Structures are given as structure tokens and as C-alpha cells.
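Morning F.,

Quick status update on the modeling queue. The single chain you submitted on Monday has been processed. Sequence for confirmation:
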Amino acid sequence: MVSEHGDDSPLIFLANFASAVTVDLGERDVVRRWSAQAPRKMWLSRPGDVLITPVPLSDAFVRYASGLLGMEHGAVDIVVAPDLPDMGTGEAVGHHGLTDLLRSLAQRHPGTRLLPTILDAPSVALAAALGVPVSPFARDLISPGVVHSVTRLNTKSGFRRAAEELGIRIPEGRACEGSDLPRAVSELLACHERVVVKADRSAGGHGLRFLSHDDPVSVEPQRSSWVVERFVRHTKEVSVMCLAEPTGPRILFTGEMRTRDGAFIGYRSPLCDVPDSTHRDLERWGLALGRHLGGHGYQGPYSIDALVAEDGTLYATESNVRRTATTTPHAMVTRLSGGGHGDGPQPAWLIAKRDSSVSHTFPGALKLLDAAGLSYTPGRGEGVVLYADRPAAGSEWRYAVIGSDPRRTEELEDSLVTTLRLGGTY
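C-alpha cells below.
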């Protein structure tokens, strides 16, 4: 488990999904979709904490999460700092005039620290303005080199360079600028039937393109950066999540990603039905990258995504040096199940997002889960958690399912699909 607090000192959670480290801030629709996930950060909080979020949380969701976490309603201060065009969340806080409020909230408790979703320059600057350190670093331990390493390893090209240095297997390919993209694609297609084109700085599979010989390739803006790789025919998309600590890196969990057209839509853990060599390679690569990050001063979670090829060979595709879409659900599951304090079996879990053919309110959806016997309760130890509030737009629900083993989570998910009339298949 990622121990976000570490001690009794409160945290200010900065849900900075709008960060130039992971997304082009000019792509407003992408930023909006990313920021809509911010309510899930509520599951990391404890009484006395502060949550800075770009989107409001419904009162029904706050009461629901607080109840499952054993907190009184209102125990966490929620400060809304809406995203602003071409600006990261850390900067938007100041432009909304919230610095003095946050400083006063921080001064209530000695030792308060700021915990950003993504370590970037604006979050470091915000911490300095509030007079608090960035967790888990000591006050003066974040050098520009640490932020630079995080920024570099959240790009596809930066990971490829690090992977080559560390002996991590990656698909054949290369980085290029937008004006050179057609030539890079043509050269790789001369040797392979299909290629993958990736924006160098993107997350969640956004903007992936799969091209064959007859597909047109446009020239992109000169200053844009891209990576072109051989398409690997694969049976699974997997990942390992690790934690870089002062004493060295350690493995947190492994799992299988659910994707559609390369875009992330869900996850299941633990990773199963793969050869032992897949586990060994994933964990070995994760620890190697962690030592590399630690050598540059980084502390915190990070992950490697990979493909299991049809012949069983594992190929790494990217690193994510931040709190990802799986970090908070894993911490939530561990906390709700009382795990992380012993060597006993840990529950299986999955997360997903699906559209409902019926419009549900958040309280209405909870009532349906209760009536179907699907709601998670600590005493029961299994069930469904609606971990990201009501759909921000449309009818796409994000949920987690917790069970004793992977088969049980799938059984519960099947019942959930029927109960909330969810669509889509995996």
C-alpha cells in the first residue's frame, strides 16, 4: 500500500490532473475528462486533511465515502479550484485567490504537507507559497533535477532512453518531431505490418494511432514530439506499480489493464494467468527503474506498462512517474479491507468505467446496489464501491469491485452490470 500519510500529520491533497507533465494543457477536452476523476482522491483522506479539487464533489458522495472510511461528514476540508485554460492546477489555485485560505488551513496543524497527484513545478511552487513541504520529501529535498526526471520519464521517448540504459526490453521504434513523422512511420512499416504512433507526452492511451501500409500519415506541427513503435501482437496488457523510498524501491502490486483501442478503461489485480517469467521481468524492471529514479532524488509511486506478446515475450511500453488511475483504488481497497498490516491474503479487485442505459442519481445508484446485495461493507469484505462520484457528464460510471479472488470479483461485476444496466464488454 502507498502510505500517503506516514505519520499523524495532515495532508493537503492537490488533485492536479491538469499538469503539463502528462498532458498538453491546450487540449481542453482531454484536461476536462482527466480532472473529472478528481473526486476519487477523497478515499485517501483522513480527518483534518484538505482536498484541492478542480471539480466539486457531490454531498451524497462525500457522505458515502466518509461513512465507509469511518469519518464524520465534514472532517475533510474540500476546496474547489476549477481548471483554467492553458494552466496547471497548481497555478490555478493562485489565480482563484485561494492561497491565503489554504495557508490558514495548513497552519491549523504543525507538520502539514502538500501531496500532489503529479510532482510538477507548479505544485512545488504552491507548496512554497503555503509554507509547507511536498510529501514525502523533506522541506528542501526537491531540486529542479527531481522535477526534470519526473517530467522526462512521463514521456514515451524519455522512458525508451531509460529502458535502453537499464536493460528493459522495448518494441523496436524511435522518437521524432512532427515534421518527420511520415518518414518515421514509413521506415518502420518497411519492416513491419503495423505500427503504433504515440504522442510523446500523453496518458491513459489518449491519442494512440494504429497504422498499416495503406493508412495516411499527416505531418504534425514541427515542435510536436512523437514515438513510433512496431505493433506487438499481444494477449495481455499488464503493469507493475512500485514505490521509490529512501531505502530503495519496492513492489506494490501488479495487474492487467483493460483497454479499448489502446485507451485505458479499467484494471484488475492481482495479475494472474501469465507465465512466471512475466512476473519476474515486470518486477525486475520495476525495481531497476526505481533505483534509477531514486538516484535522481525521486520518492513516490511509479509504474511500468507492458505487453505480453503472443509468444510470451514481455515488452515494456511506458513509465508513469506519478499517482495513476490505479494508485488510489489500490490504497482504497487496502484501507477498506484492513490490509497492509500483516501477511494475510489480500483481496482481489478491479476497476472499470461503463455507460448506463438509464440515468441514475448517486443516491439512486446506491439504493439499487443495496437492494441487490452488492454494496461493499467492511463487515462483509466484498462488494462494489462507486469510487468517483456521479458521472460528470453523460452516464459513464466508475466503479471498483472487491472480492476474495479474481473469479469472485467477476461474478460481482456481472451482477453490477445487470443492476445498473451498464453496457460494454471487456
